[in-house]
Each structure stands twice: as C-alpha cells, then as structure tokens.
C-alpha cells in the first residue's frame, strides 16, 4: 500500500487564549497649558536654583546624581500662582489615569482625589545623569519636561530609561524569548511640554546628557485618596 493513499486526520488548531498578566502601564500626555506656564516656571526654577546652598538640596541620594541641581521636595507646594496651577493640572491628569485603571476596583459610590505629596525640579547640565532608582511611599510618579534642552536631538542623551520590572526575565535567552525585547529597557526621549506618568515601583534613570542647553524637568510623587 502506498502511504500517500492513507487518509490521515490532521489535528485541529488548538484553542489557545493569551493572558497578559502583570503588565506595566505607562502614560504619556501633554501638559494642557504648557505654553502659558513654561516661562514663569523657568524663571521660578532658576531663581530658586541660584539660592541653593548645595546642588542636591533634597539631600536624597546625592551620590546617584551628577552635574544636576535638585530642589527640595516641596517645589509645587509654594504659594505661587504658577506653581499652584501647575500642581492642579498635574493632579487632574494623575486622577484621570488612576481612575481609568482602578475605578472597577473601587466602591461604587467612591469619589477620588489625587495628591502630589512630593515635587522637585532637576536642572541637568552637560554630562549630568541620575542612576537607576524607584520612588517608595507613593502610587504614581511623573516627569514633566519643562524644557528638555537638546535631549530630543540624536546622540545628545538625556533620555529617561525605564527598566523591566520582571527581574528574572533575562536569566535565559533563546528564540523563544525574543518577544521580551532582548534588552529589558524602554527609553523615553523627552519632548517639551510632555509628561510621562508611571507606577512608583518601576525603576528608571536619566541617562547621561550631552547637550549644551540645560535640561529642565519637574518630577513628582502622588497618592490617591477615596472618600
């Protein structure tokens, strides 16, 4: 008998459902009134920078930072109309993100508020960087690129790098792990007026910056409250 004449049932396709678990949501948006806020923010930042007694005024992990100035952690809490409006708009954006992700898990009649509990500026000069770190004791963090300087230009550095939180994702590599991206990082190139929001557990860094113009950002930590 010719084997080609045999009728062999072909296996049916398997019904396989993909479950994406433990994803890490990041959000990018534009500061609503950036064009109206920028000049005043830059003036306030440089006025305060000129009064700093030390480059890292927050005194937080100074050895992890190089060639940058950092304020104390209450920058947006000062009684200034521009800073108060900046904080209000940022809290609105944080609340929108947090509500969209969490509302299904909140009590049906719950109302929520977002509170920025820490905020600071970075003014980074040529060669400046911030080593990898995360932000404890808060839920959502963000970086507002007031003026990214030359960071948006090729090879000028100054990008923010986010690290894969799956700490063992790269303990082995073969063609079956190609979907992981092979490098475990995601680089975000700063664009003026943009904000990136991310969960506090996510490690990130600011890679060395090589631009001639200062790279100026406002970073913040926040908490969500239900009432």
UniProtKB/TrEMBL annotation:
Pfam families: 2OG-FeII_Oxy_5 (PF13759). It comes from the Bacteria. InterPro entries: CHP02466. This is 2OG-Fe(II) oxygenase. It comes from Marinomonas posidonica (strain CECT 7376 / NCIMB 14433 / IVIA-Po-181). The lineage of its organism: Bacteria, Pseudomonadati, Pseudomonadota, Gammaproteobacteria, Oceanospirillales.
